[in-house]
Amino acid sequence: MEILKISVVRIGGSRGIRIPRKVLDECHISDTVEAIVDNGQITLRPEKKPREGWAAAARKIHEKGEDRLLIDDMPDEWVWYR
Predict the structure, then answer these.
(1) How many domains does the chain have?
(2) What is the DSSP string of the chain?
């Protein structure tokens, strides 16, 4: 774990910090972050995108042959009851 001392600077009517490129690259941060404020501390993490990585995971499952039905005796036709 590395602890960095980063100055808080004025940005218009607000205040902000400049995160060093090395940290941005290491944390895979590009445009937006999620900020979690808890008990007087701020945690920044890369924004998670819904379904991120699903396509790659589906390819791996297919390559392993694990993309089969879990129920072996599925009926050919569904019977609907009222």
Answers:
(1) 1
(2) -------EEEETTEEEE---HHHHHHTT--S-EEEEEETTEEEEEEPPPTTTTHHHHHHHHHHTT--S-S-TT--SS-----
